[in-house]
Amino acid sequence: MSVLPESYEAVIGLEIHVQLRTRTKMFCGCELSFGDEPNVHTCPVCLAHPGSLPVINEQAVRYGIQIGLALECEIAPRSVFHRKNYFYPDNPKAYQISQYDIPLGTNGRLGDVRIHRVHLEEDAAKLIHVGESGRIHGSGASLVDFNRGGTPLLEIVTEPDLRDPGMVREWLQLLRSTIKATGASDVNMEEGSLRCDANVSIRPRGQEELGVKTELKNMNSFRFIERGIDAELERQLHLIGSGEGVTQETLHFDPRSGSLTSLRSKEEAHDYRYFPEPDLVPLAPTEQMLAEARAALPELPAAREARYRDELGLQDAQARQLSRDDELGSYFEAAVAVGGPSPAVLANWITGLRTAREVDVGSLTALVAMVEAREITNEAGKQVLALLAAEGGDPAAIVEREGLGLVEDSGELEEAVDRALAALPDEAQKVSEGVGQAIGPIVGFVMREMKGRADGGEVTRLIRAKLGQ
């Protein structure tokens, strides 16, 4: 839920950095490997030694085109690399090779959010601050690991189409699953393969003019992104309410304390003094490269979600969950392919019970078919599922072994109902007087007595009949 009152609305745009799953860096031959010893994957090019020259990584370009097409972007027939000048300890060249006014792709869309541009660039090295005092001065220190420096990045910049933190989180989850489906990145947020900056502002609802924006930097968890934007919206609302106004700046959100810290005033494009990279030729993708990228695209999550909903009859939440969770979606597809139960019933079991994915697909479909055929109750089916997850085997054999088949002896069921009525006289009296909800505890008592083998509808019918209802 938004922290803003009805009279204000949030305006949020995102800048997402995606590390591409190439073997080597963007402009040199150094191998990429997460978690290795510091500074073992370096060379004169990525360390910016004098006289060294960059060479474009072809696979990174192909991955960039693939993601651009997945986001419905127009791929530029000719794009150019630029030098983005800034000095920072993690940037040995004192500039980053990026793309500026002619990016790889423009004018895309994913769901309800427009994509302003996608462009290729290189990642910076990793700064490691030893002790809080190391961040500024004092007894601490800041160390640099150049292994990450030069990693191929694709930056995705959205239009300011997002309106609340929850929408941001949901859209980023769709983006992550879309990129992962292309195979261009593992989009592992914990390892920094997907990082997000958020440009945040607020304005009176109905106003066209944008408010002053701030930028939240390098958030690498969906939950932290949502919390960080919430905190910034609340801060801006307080500033405007107190008459101070919002200053354009870059902020850091600390998820441990929930606090926001100013890092620097927000840079504009002219601050970076962009100019074309003289050591690299322009990118001009061939028709064959574009055709290969299109052919390599799988069914993307948004299309899969629509198919699950429109063709297989799944509910919106189920279709969304199964289309965005690769493991669960593949399991569901395999279960549907086995045949038998309807896709909608299978989806109920697979999304509703965490243990479902731990069971062999054939065993799960056989179990769900037994429930659909009313050979066992839904409750008994859950018990069988837990046993299948723990020990495997045949669901029919487990039902027979555990005595979980649907009770067929009406006398046994009637005796259980009589015991329930005797044990719960107050509830029985209320049901007799027409208090419908009082029947719940009585049904529950019977179901426990029957260990899940009784049909709930039949139990309810018997109770009402015995109580004259």
Task: Please describe what this structure looks like.
The protein has 469 residues and is an alpha+beta fold. The chain has 3 domains: 8-294, no CATH class; 299-402, no CATH class; 410-466, Arc Repressor Mutant, subunit A (Orthogonal Bundle), CATH 1.10.10. The chain is 39% helix and 19% strand. It has 15 helices and 14 strands. Strand 11 (214-219), helix 3 (222-241) and strand 12 (249-254) form a beta-alpha-beta unit. Helix 1 packs across helix 4 and helix 9 (361-372) packs antiparallel against helix 10 (378-391). The radius of gyration is 29 Å and the shape is elongated. The protein starts with 7 loop residues before the first strand and ends with a helix.
Topology record:
Layout (H helix, E strand, L loop, with lengths): L7 E12 L38 H13 L3 E2 L5 E5 L9 E5 L5 E6 L2 E10 L3 E5 L10 E5 L6 E7 L6 H18 L11 E11 L9 E6 L2 H20 L7 E6 L4 E7 L9 E2 L10 H10 L4 H10 L5 H9 L1 H13 L4 H10 L8 H12 L5 H14 L3 H8 L7 H14 L1 H8 L6 H11 L6 H11 L3
Annotation keywords:
three-stranded antiparallel beta sheet; alpha+beta; 3 domains; elongated; Arc Repressor Mutant, subunit A; 469 residues; 14 strands; 15 helices; 39% helix; nine-stranded mixed beta sheet
